[in-house]
Write a structure and sequence with these properties.
The structure holds four protein chains of four kinds. By secondary structure, chain B is an all-alpha fold. Chain B contains four helices and no strands. Helices cover 72% and strands 0% of the residues of chain B. The N terminus of chain B is likely disordered. Chain D folds into two domains: 178 residues, FAD/NAD(P)-binding domain (3-Layer(bba) Sandwich), CATH 3.50.50; 186 residues, D-Amino Acid Oxidase, subunit A, domain 2 (D-Amino Acid Oxidase, Chain A, domain 2). In chain D, strand 10 and strand 11 form a beta hairpin. The chains are: A alpha+beta, B mainly alpha, C mainly alpha, D alpha+beta.
């Protein structure tokens, strides 16, 4: 157990129809706790009116994305130690680019419905999972392994993306990454969805999505790869027609 | 207060900033970088002080490659910058009709800039002849 | 007042330029967009000014003489710097787009910007000494 | 007569699954929760889709529930499940002594198991403790807790159920004749207070079931028993890894996305709304986890958390049965209109819902059979896509 810290938690508050404002909560924390623990304690002991989303508390569900000191974080795995200091403040705001339900809780319906529309897979064969250090040789039995995809659908990338801030039509990093994982070869119908001004070409290489992604998806790399796939497809079609 | 956002179906392409338009933008980039380097070096490092006076420029334009290069430079820079501008405008989510008008304006702007520049380059080149 | 409840809107275009909370690639994006808009503005001015050339030596040399004060030179240097930054940053975008150096985009950005700084210094020296 | 109306308090596993079941049986269902879906115990579940092997010796009733539901869930909710099986490994003599009981227990519960040699086990899972003495392959699985619940919620929504999240039950409305006829709620997102009325109120608040029952003057004997879990990177194993022995602390390691989760411990608390993650329990997870997978000792910790199991009935901690119970408060405390479902495990959520819906239907004199066994669930994303 480490030395306790006294911090000020600045929480963005907003009930329906209100303008957001900050409420401050002074609290004692263990620096090795997570930001979500601090938020949860505000609700449990200090202010029962606080609304926020959370479920798994270990980075598999993607519910607890928030902006912590202006940077998108999955709060359940963000150590307080890494984002503030003793006697410091911790500013917690809802993700950007999603309608706020209340306080820190946002409605991610737009992300989920787009992921659904492009048919992003929530589970996929382990052999396709792009594991960083894959076993040198997949066991034949591995071919049948199904695993949950890396993308937690947490929306951090969409909150961080500068292009997504002004255009609600932009599909956004998570959706494009899902399309890339599906592959254009296997899903040719995706070509007309991603090869548009609201698709891959709306990305301006800010790489903010990859910088904030808590789960190894690396959306920027996937968007770049999707571009290559599209260019290949388009040139291929050109020659096929000719 | 848990109305779900109405599922907004993925919008159909407006007018396609698609592969081709985008390839034009990205491929003119490196081309520009090369011509811009020449342009800057010539303007600032040629001779003692670079090209500063009217006479310098006229003399420089006497070589027919130069006006040709400047015209290519202009056409490339106009293409790159206007397609870039269109990209920025698209970030602002213009409506389909507005975008159509913007497209026409951009095309007209681009053509007139290139025509004007070509006329200018040829005028300068011929005034030295 | 954020009356559209935190949703994307064209009115938030200023957030493009907000560096708070952004990381390397985001700064690159900001630089790229500012220099793009700056260069576009300069390009239009440049074309108009060069029109003076068609009017013969008097008009143009008069204008050039007008531009030989330090403030104008700083302005000109800013344009050159914008061009260099935008151009070198473009290399990063070009390469990563075609799948080269995607995982090294941060290092790529810092290297290119260091290069840009050197080139800008050389140009700056030249422009002030030529004056 | 219009549809019978039901309010379900709690949008965790039992709440969403009961909503799905009741909606299929023609109920007009409203689910309320003071937070979003799965904000309590359900969301933080370990995520083991039990095959029952863990309970096959001591608690065969639970074990049989598990294997039956395991097979069903794989079929109806494939989008939330990693169906990669599991492995029980023995590491010492005490484990080996448990072997016989395990085999006969699994046979009694019809759990298909397959004993393999340590070499075979290591070929399948190279990162497990190489000193293992024997191993069994079992049909375990792993699920994503939130997505499993959302799948039930989405399917319920499609059949007309409404979800009022961030809506807290403040009190139960009594009709003056000792019967519950609705819930006074407050929408925490708008601070709006209003009444919801229904023919039946289902208390699906798990570890918090006592608090809701108390609003009607009823008592539910539920013993909230938190346990600590710790996630480590990377994904050391592809299968759920169990210690071949009596259920104990830190004897399960689950793969989840790019990590493994070691769980769990067992302690008792009074304050339910915030339970601290005890450092000494985190240490136990590290030690016990490293026994199963030595690599964990130097692995990067990704998250530490806890969830509060709702244990029912007698017994202490590990001794209590892991089965579930549906209380008709008419029978227990003569309070009409209120049913409480609690206990159980995530794996048995559908069965818990079936049982609850059966009780509700019987109470309201509705003859309608459960069909959830055969209805594939919608994609969890449909929960957000479908209108409320």
């Amino acid at each position: 157990m480490s030395q306790k810290w006294n911090i000020t938690l600045k929480v963005s508050r907003q009930k329906a129809g209100e303008t957001p404002h900050f409420d401050e909560y002074k609290m004692e924390v263990d620096p090795d706790e997570y930001v979500l623990d601090a938020v949860e304690r505000v609700w449990a002991f200090m202010d029962r009116s606080l609304c926020y989303r959370h479920a798994c508390h270990h980075s598999t569900c993607g519910a607890c994305g928030m902006r912590v000191n202006d940077v998108e974080k999955l709060t359940c795995i963000t150590f307080i130690r890494d984002v503030t200091h003793n006697a410091g403040t911790l500013k917690v705001e809802p993700l950007r680019n999603f309608p706020v339900i209340s306080d820190l809780a946002v409605d991610m319906g737009s992300l989920y419905s787009r992921l659904e529309e492009i048919g992003a897979r929530s589970v996929l064969p382990a052999t396709e999972a792009e594991i960083e250090n894959p076993p040198s040789k997949w066991d034949p039995a591995d071919q049948q392994y199904i695993r949950l995809a890396d993308c937690l659908e947490c929306g951090l990338c969409i909150s961080a993306c500068p292009s997504a801030a002004t255009s609600s039509d932009y599909l956004g990093p998570a959706v494009l990454a899902g399309a890339q994982a599906n592959g254009l070869k296997r899903n040719p119908e995706l070509l007309e969805i991603v090869d548009t001004e609201d698709g891959v070409w709306r990305c301006h290489s800010a790489f903010e999505c990859t910088a904030v992604c808590p789960s190894f998806v690396d959306p920027a790399r996937r968007i770049m790869n999707l571009r290559s796939q599209i260019i290949k497809e388009r040139f291929g079609n050109l020659f096929r027609k000719a | 207060m848990t109305e779900t956002t109405t599922s907004k179906s993925i919008s159909a392409p407006k007018s396609g900033e698609n592969t081709w338009l985008w390839l034009i933008k990205i491929l003119t980039g490196p081309l520009l970088l090369i011509i811009l380097a020449i342009h800057l070096l010539v303007n600032h490092f040629l001779g003692e002080t670079g090209l500063l006076t009217y006479a310098d420029i006229i003399a420089y334009y006497r070589n027919p490659i130069i006006p040709a290069m400047e015209i290519v430079f202009l056409a490339t820079v106009v293409t790159h910058s206007l397609s870039g501008l269109r990209g920025i405008i698209l970030d602002l989510k213009p409506g389909r009709d507005v975008l159509k008008i913007i497209d026409w304006i951009l095309v007209l702007l681009g053509i007139s800039a290139v025509v004007y520049g070509t006329w200018l380059a040829l005028t300068i080149a011929s005034s030295g002849a | 007042m954020d009356n559209n409840n935190n949703q994307p809107t064209p009115g938030k275009f200023w957030t493009w330029f907000n560096p708070i909370g952004r990381q390397t690639g985001g700064w690159a994006f900001i630089l790229n967009r500012i220099t793009a808009l700056g260069l576009l503005f300069y390009l239009s001015l440049h074309l108009i000014v060069l029109g003076q050339l068609a009017k013969g030596p008097a008009g143009y040399d008069g204008f050039v003489a007008l531009m030989r004060n330090p403030i104008s030179i700083i302005g000109e240097l800013l344009v050159v710097a914008a061009g260099i930054i935008h151009g070198l940053n473009g290399i990063r975008i070009f390469l990563t787009t075609f799948g080269i150096g995607v995982t090294l985009q941060k290092q790529l950005f810092y290297t290119l910007m260091a290069l840009a700084l050197i080139i800008i210094l050389v140009f700056g020296l030249r422009m002030f000494t030529a004056a | 007569m219009s549809k019978p109306q039901a309010i379900i308090v709690g949008a965790g596993f039992t709440g969403t699954a009961t909503a799905h079941d009741l909606a299929l049986r023609g109920f007009d269902v409203t689910v309320i929760d003071r937070g979003d879906i799965c904000n309590g115990t359900s969301g933080r579940t370990h995520g083991l889709l039990h095959c029952g092997g863990r309970y096959a010796v001591k608690d065969q009733e639970s074990a049989i529930e598990c294997i039956d539901e395991n097979i069903l869930l794989r079929k109806i909710a494939p989008m939330a499940i990693e169906p990669n099986g599991g492995m029980f490994i023995a590491l010492n003599e005490s484990d080996m002594q448990y072997r016989e009981d395990f085999i006969s227990g699994c046979q009694a519960c019809h759990i298909p198991i397959d004993e393999i040699t340590p070499q075979q086990a290591l070929a399948l899972e190279p990162n497990i403790n190489p000193k293992l003495l024997t191993a069994f392959l079992v049909p375990d699985g792993t699920f994503d807790p939130l997505r499993l619940a959302l799948s039930f919620a989405a399917s319920a929504k499609k059949n007309g159920a409404r979800f009022r999240t961030f809506t807290e039950a403040k009190s139960l409305i009594m009709n003056g004749k000792g019967a519950v006829s609705g819930v006074n709620v407050v929408n925490r997102a708008t601070n709006q207070k209003y009444e919801l009325r229904a023919d039946i109120v289902v208390n699906a608040t798990g570890a918090w079931a006592g608090e809701i029952a108390e609003m009607a003057g009823s008592i539910v004997q539920v013993k909230p028993t938190p346990g600590v879990m710790v996630a480590y990177e990377p994904r050391f194993v592809q299968r759920a890894l169990n210690r071949l022995n009596k259920p104990g602390d830190g004897d399960i390691v689950l793969p989840q996305r790019r990590m493994v989760v070691v769980g769990t411990t067992s302690f008792e608390v009074n304050e339910l709304d915030y339970v601290p993650v005890l450092e000494e329990h985190v240490k136990i997870m590290l030690e016990r986890g490293a026994e199963l997978i030595p690599g964990i000792k130097h692995a990067k910790m990704r998250g530490k958390y806890m969830a509060t199991r709702p244990l029912i009935g007698g017994g202490m901690g590990r001794g209590s049965a892991r089965t579930f119970k549906c209380f008709d408060h008419k029978e227990t405390d003569n309070v009409e209109g209120l049913v409480t479902i609690t206990g159980g495990k995530a794996t048995t959520l559908r069965a818990m819902a079936e049982k609850t819906a059966d009780v509700v239907c019987e109470k309201l004199g509705i003859h309608s059979a459960c069909v959830t066994k055969d209805v594939p669930l919608l994609s969890y994303r449909q929960y957000y896509v479908l209108p409320n």
